[in-house]
């Protein structure tokens, strides 16, 4: 059932994004009295799952769920209908229109995806506001993975700034360091400011380490596993661990490491327990399993740290939604730049259909659904405007050249460019989905 919910969200989101994108092309084509022969959700080689014709346009649903298209008369597109291009030019065709109209028709899809993201982010800002963990409220510091500690970070370090800029959202620290290719991070270590340099070559490794820094919390028991060592020893939900074998110890990461060291041994835990409004210290002997665990789940960081929520009225939500869309566009454009920077090895993280579908949760949440859909709408807009033949950006590039030089590329050149672009796109699709297969089924 969980996987079906994930798949349903993916199909619903993907279909909405494709329809909105293609409607952008359709809208400007109709605005400039250009004939649209087909409007399809998904691709339909050989046959369609559903179709009907109205106003000279065939609407339908294809059987290959990798996108969609509008077929505009007199245009060299993915249909590669070269026979039509050999016929005399008709006034209703794309090629008969002035360059500025053709340009708007081609960017229509990207514009609609950006507008969709703006409207979603406005709606989210108004409905749910923005809830996040403010970096200044991370009072116990962070826990760093092995890579971060090799760079010089120490568990408990509080991040002050990245390249001299203060960080507000604790959840954006890893993304900021990687996408902006940060050079330095300043931390507060026991009241002292320490600057840590981020080597340029470390970005490739950081891309594979989203657990670079996690919020540090005291060890407060959230739940014990029935029949596990902790439950047998008498640990209860709400207990706070304060010592290990007589030595003062406070944080969950410290206990996790200690349990791994003392696997299969019996240890003594000092526990603060609140009962009937009275807090008392007790000691409990606990048998650590062979795997270095005691069968305990800690409480979530959100229950120990104050979350910040920014609420917006309707008029405040509009600029907030626009600003968030701009930030997402900028952030994803930087990610694309990383993809084309070989030394970062960011191209190895490229994912296909499985990776995209996997970002949806296995439970239904409208807030999560709209957040992911808005992000994917930005992704679709940025990807489509790239100057690659067969993408909208490729057509835009040739139209800009025409506007600047006054010379229109020949149909033969456009056909060859379109074919070249299709080959590039298929290669990227094969590579991205091959990465998915390797990551999820082989590795």
UniProtKB/TrEMBL annotation:
It is a multi-pass membrane protein. Its main location: membrane. It is found in: Membrane. The chain crosses the membrane at residues 7-28, 103-122, 372-401, 413-432. It is an enzyme of class 3 (hydrolase). Its EC number is 3.4.24.-. It comes from the Bacteria. Residues 209-275 form the PDZ domain. GO terms for molecular function: metallopeptidase activity. It holds the Pfam family PDZ_6. Keywords: Hydrolase, Membrane, Metal-binding, Metalloprotease, Protease, Transmembrane, Transmembrane helix, Zinc. InterPro entries: PDZ (IPR001478), PDZ_6 (IPR041489), PDZ_sf (IPR036034), Pept_M50_Zn (IPR004387), Peptidase_M50 (IPR008915). The keyword Membrane applies. CDD domains: S2P-M50_PDZ_RseP-like. SUPFAM superfamilies: PDZ domain-like (SSF50156). Its cofactor is Zn(2+). The keyword Membrane applies. Belongs to the peptidase M50B family. PANTHER family: MEMBRANE METALLOPROTEASE ARASP2, CHLOROPLASTIC-RELATED, REGULATOR OF SIGMA-E PROTEASE RSEP. This is Zinc metalloprotease. It comes from Alistipes hominis. The lineage of its organism: Bacteria, Pseudomonadati, Bacteroidota, Bacteroidia, Bacteroidales.
